[in-house]
Automatic annotation (TrEMBL):
Alphabetical keyword list: Endoplasmic reticulum, FAD, Flavoprotein, FMN, Membrane, NADP, Oxidoreductase, Transmembrane, Transmembrane helix
Assigned GO CC terms: cytosol; endoplasmic reticulum membrane
Biological role: This enzyme is required for electron transfer from NADP to cytochrome P450 in microsomes. It can also provide electron transfer to heme oxygenase and cytochrome B5.
Protein name: NADPH--cytochrome P450 reductase
Family the entry assigns: In the C-terminal section; belongs to the flavoprotein pyridine nucleotide cytochrome reductase family. Belongs to the NADPH--cytochrome P450 reductase family.
Membrane-spanning residues: 20-39
Coiled-coil region: none
Enzyme class: oxidoreductase
Cofactor(s) this protein requires: FMN; FAD
Length: 681
């Protein structure tokens, strides 16, 4: 037989003796003693577990070690630190900002550490007052429809539901958001206010970063004033010493066996060869590309319809969900970096955190080759931030290159202007910088430390699991554009997807890692509820799934409510995607009305917003008189805002309300999930 750990135990047959020996008595006493101890020990543990429930984490650490590792207070005390910087990050930017603050503390003789709230017992905040001149800083992103990031969810709920006494806690908050979204920096603002309500002391006013403008500039400006407030609050002074201290040290891994080297896996070694359910952000599913076809009929732009095969994966999705796609950088750009730095891209290395107390041992899966790191793990196509300019200064041998980098790394008006024009406006990435400043030759391992992680890309799923349970469909526009320096920048994910064309022969089909991200963008629970869908361009994607689902219900004999779709594109004969499908749904009665706006088919441009204004009676009939649902998908910067303004105007006029009443009506619709948006900027 086997015990619970799978170790084989042999059974032995013993012949009974007629007499009870002294050995038998001794064994009997031992057995009784062990049984007594086990029974009362178990009872004690059971009682204890009822008083303090715990969750078993997916870790090889013992429960004692886990408790110790989750206590950031113990780490602060044991290492003589007084600053902890927490981050709530979905794409890595908040984590990067947190690291920069902790590192900069050295200039003020403040020793800091970065912490992930998901890995900490945040109730320990009450003990921060025990550490002299302690400070907790929170870099918090707002995600989705005013939601906390995944790793900040537990902390957010702890603040909402708890009433801890945080008197003696000194804190500051920097929020990361986007003004094009309605719930701009909502989570950071809540955390800032809630900490104060619980008795904590705000050392510096909240900073609000806007990713739609220049979040780097917002952060740097806030950070400078933060340190002024910290110096004033604690009576300390800046040392003037620069903190260009490496966070990771290079480890030569040339002797590591090939089977122990990462080759693009997100977390678990060989995870793509040995797939294990469930699949998530750290364990994506390697999906085959079943279909990849062009949707545009003509013109120089491209829009792809792609189907990911999930048959046998046990993955399930709902209509309106998103699918995350893990891209990789082009080999052309990767090779260019190796060429510019005269580096051996196939050398195997590892970066090891110099802070032994940090929970983050490596910045990305290690060991791996430089080629793997630059291809799968590092973002080499986005605009580098100012701290990278600062770190590159020491590698410039030409004084002119040095001065340019110093200027862009500075927070002076001239420096900000130069950074904005040379990096942001001209859209330079790290490859372009190394090309245009030829004397800058950073160590490749240091560059790998500095560059942010390559993030997955999210797409609205354009299919219904009722109709396509074994595949996930997306609708993606190929991103290519020419910059002011006459370089062609290419979208990382869409250009990769464009190359993944399935074949009809015996060759292996192309694959790409994916996972499903749940969404709140949902059809009404009742199929009879009428809905209006507004989705120009690829904003049509989730509505294709909505229509499929309602069509499925209709064919099953269920009653379905009105479905009104507003769709727009440039030209009917060029980029009217899914035209035949939509016309068929109109013909069979699933789609009640299809309002179309082709912006460039006539002298005056015509958009879906114009059609909405013309159809005010229809809008009010569905959302006002019939309590229907309204959905918007697409551009957040202008289209979604314009739609919102039109809806408020229609409610005001047709519902005979004041502007304030109309705004409250629309707000209530949003709270009731009758007005939903799936938008991007």
């Amino acid at each position: 037989m086997e015990n619970s750990e799978g170790v084989k135990i042999e059974s032995t047959v013993v012949t009974e003796e007629p007499l009870i020996s002294a050995l038998d008595i001794a064994l009997f006493v031992v057995i009784i003693t062990v049984a007594y101890f086990w029974y009362f020990k178990r009872d004690k543990q059971s009682s204890s577990s009822e008083k303090k429930p715990y969750t078993i984490q997916p870790s090889s650490l013992s429960s004692i070690e886990q408790t110790s590792n989750s206590s950031f207070i113990k780490k602060l005390k044991s290492t003589g630190r007084s600053l902890v910087v927490f981050y709530g990050s979905q794409t890595g930017t908040a984590e990067e900002f947190a690291g920069r603050i902790a590192k900069e503390g050295a200039r003020y003789k403040v020793k800091g550490m970065v912490a992930d709230p998901e890995e900490c017992d945040m109730a320990d905040l009450v003990e921060m007052k025990e550490i002299q001149k302690s400070l907790a800083i929170f870099c918090i992103a707002t995600y989705g429809e005013g939601d906390p990031t995944d790793n900040a969810m537990d902390f957010y709920e702890w603040l909402q539901n708890g009433d801890a006494d945080l008197e003696g806690l000194n804190y500051a908050v920097f929020g990361l958001g986007n003004k094009t979204y309605e719930h701009y920096n909502e989570i950071a603002i809540y955390i800032d206010q809630r900490l104060e309500e619980l008795g904590a002391t705000r050392v510096h006013e909240i900073g609000l970063g806007d990713d739609d403008a220049n979040i780097e500039d917002d952060f740097v400006s806030w950070k400078e004033k933060l340190w002024e407030s910290v110096c004033s609050h604690y009576g300390i002074e800046e040392t003037g010493e620069e903190s260009n201290i490496r966070q990771y040290k290079l480890v030569d891994c040339s002797e590591v066996l090939p089977e122990r080297i990462f080759s693009g896996e997100i977390s678990r070694l060989k995870s793509y060869e040995n797939q294990r359910f469930p699949f998530d952000v750290k364990n994506p599913y390697l999906s085959k590309i079943a279909v990849n076809r062009e949707l545009h009929k003509s013109g120089d732009r491209s829009c792809m319809h792609i189907e990911f095969d999930i048959d046998g994966s046990k993955m399930r999705y709902d209509t309106g969900d998103h699918v995350a796609v893990y891209p990789k950088n082009s080999s052309e750009l990767v090779d260019k970096i190796g060429e510019l730095l005269n580096a051996d891209l196939d050398a195997v290395f590892s970066l090891l955190n110099t802070d032994e107390e940090s929970s983050k041992e490596h910045p990305f899966p290690c060991p791996c080759t430089y080629r793997t790191a630059l291809t799968y793990y590092l973002d080499i196509t986005s605009n580098p931030r100012t701290h990278i300019m600062k770190e590159l200064i020491e590698y410039a041998s030409d004084p002119k290159d040095q001065e340019k980098l110093k200027l862009m790394a500075s927070s002076t008006p001239e420096g900000k202007k130069e950074f904005h024009e040379w990096i942001l406006r001209d859209n330079r990435n790290i490859v372009h910088i190394l090309e245009d400043l030829p004397s800058v030759k950073p160590d490749l391992d240091h560059l790998c430390e500095l560059l942010p992680r390559l993030q997955c890309r999210y797409y609205s799923i354009s299919s219904s699991p009722k109709v396509y349970p074994k595949s996930i469909h997306i609708t993606a526009v190929l991103v290519n554009y020419t910059t002011s320096t006459n370089r062609v920048n290419k979208g990382v994910a869409t250009n990769l997807l464009a190359q993944l064309i399935p074949t009809n022969d015996e060759l292996p089909q192309p694959t790409i890692p994916i996972y499903i991200r749940r969404s709140q963008f949902r059809l009404p629970p009742k199929s009879q509820t009428p809905i209006i869908m507004i989705g120009p361009g690829t904003g049509l994607a989730p509505f294709r799934g909505f229509i499929q689902e309602r069509d499925y219900a209709r064919k099953e004999g269920r009653e379905i409510g009105e479905m009104v779709l507003y769709f727009g594109c440039r030209k009917k004969d060029e980029d009217f995607i899914y035209e035949n499908e939509l016309q068929e749904y109109v013909a069979n009665g699933t789609l009640t009305k299809l309002h179309l706006a082709f912006s460039r088919d006539q002298p005056e441009k015509k958009y879906v917003t114009h059609l909405l204004e013309q159809n005010a009676d229809e809008l009010w009939n569905i959302i006002g008189e019939k309590s229907g649902h309204l959905y918007v998908c697409g551009d957040a910067r202008s289209m979604a805002k314009d739609v919102h303004s039109i809806i408020v105007k229609v409610v005001m006029e047709k519902g005979q309300m004041t502007n304030s009443q109309a705004l409250n009506y629309v707000k209530k619709m949003e709270q009731q999930k009758r007005y939903s948006a799936d938008v991007w900027s």
